[in-house]
Amino acid sequence: MRWEGNRESSNVDDMRDSGGGGGFGFGGRSIGIGTIVIALVGGAIFGINPLTILSVLSGGSPAPTAQQGPAKAPPADDRMAKFVSTVLADTEDVWKQVFAQGGATYKEPRLVLFRGAVGTACGTGQSAMGPFYCPGDHKVYLDTTFFEELDQRFGAPGDFAQAYVVAHEVGHHVQNLLGLSDRVHRARERAGEGEGNQLSVRLELQADCYAGVWGHYAAQHDLLDPGDAEEGLRAAASIGDDRLQRQTQGRVVPESFTHGSSEQRVSWLRRGLESGQIDSCDTFAAR
Ligand SMILES: [Zn+2]
Q1: Which of 35, 107, 195, 245 is at a distance of 20 to 30 A from 49, taking alpha carbons?
Q2: CA of 28 to the centre of ligand 1 (A)
Q3: In this structure, are residues 28 and 83 in contact, taking their beta carbons and an 8 Å threshold?
Q4: Does 46 score more than 80 pLDDT?
Q5: To which H or E segment does residue 14 belong?
Q6: In whole angstroms, how far apart are CA 155 and each of 132, 161, 207, 249?
Q7: Distance from the alpha carbon of residue 143 to the mean position of ligand 1, in angstroms
Q8: How far is CA 64 from CA 32, 69, 122, 231, in A?
Q9: What is the spatial distance between Cα 215 and Cα 202, in angstroms, rounded to a whole number?
């Protein structure tokens, strides 16, 4: 990507050395709702099942944050933070424009860089969950060591693969603003487990498509190098539920998918990339 020198977002909070660290979550006071989240999603990769977060959120109180220091801006010489801030800034520009075209106003999310564990309105977030979005506080949570995992464990290296991860989480924020997360949550309360997973998959695939919509405009902003789109598509393929299940449990159980198969993730990301239209991302209407 050709990101250097572009605008950086001021919506990035650096909590990497604010007492969250590895120790957070083990103190008596931070046990509670956060523990439930960990129990339900421990080991999940790249995004907790969003419905898990939503259901915890709807019944719970905010997680304690007393043990955390104040958030601050990342240091200016931190290249990774600079990259994330620049990608976030471009998502702000794109979504502001897309919302304005639809006569709406885009409310920017914040992005929290953390290490180990972090208190959120959705409970205690853990690095092991992968990056995630909390609808309760409108924040994307990212431990950038996930990018190493994306490269080494999932075989998806490259800066555009990383940008796709950020854009996917921002996609969940867009869904939240559009009221989609809420609607899915209500539908899920009436549904059985299998159907609930189906709804989760549709929500995730839509976030992939929204990431693609961002990518479409990022290309127009001259941010992409040749091969970047393919890099993103490769990343989407590498974190499909079927591929992950084959890797971790040796067999594939489609009923338990929560994010979609590799093929589905690739196809919805591609759809957004090619069209640049959120209307093309109606995963709920698709068969
Ligand atoms: Zn997601």
Answers
A1: 107
A2: 30
A3: no
A4: no
A5: strand 12-14
A6: 20, 10, 21, 18
A7: 15
A8: 9, 12, 10, 38
A9: 20
d(CA 110, CA 47): 17
Calculate how far, in angstroms, residue 159's C-alpha sits from the geometric centre of ligand 1: 19
Distance 165 CA to ligand 1 centre (A): 9
Strand order in the sheet with 110-113: 12-14, 110-113, 139-142, 132-134
Q: How far is the CA of 27 from the centre of ligand 1 (A)?
A: 29
Q: Are strands 123-126 and 117-120 parallel, antiparallel or unpaired?
A: antiparallel
Query: What is the rounded distance in angstroms from the CA atom of residue 227 to the CA atom of residue 106?
Result: 30
Give the separation between CA 172 and CA 207, rounded to whole angstroms.
6
- CA atoms of 235 and 154, how far apart (whole Å): 8
- Please give the sequence-ordered ranges of beta strands (E in DSSP) within 72-183, or none if there are none: 110-113, 117-120, 123-126, 132-134, 139-142
Query: How far, in Å, are 103, 105, 113, 176, 251 from residue 97 at the CA level?
Result: 10, 9, 26, 17, 43
Per-residue model confidence as pLDDT tens digits over 228-261: 999 999 999 998 889 888 888 889 989 888 899 9
Q: How would you classify residue 155: left for phi > 0, otherwise alpha for psi between -120 and 50, otherwise beta? A: left
CB count, 10 Å around CB of 182? 14
Nearest to 171 by CA among 52, 259, 81: 259
pLDDT over 70 percentage in the chain: 82
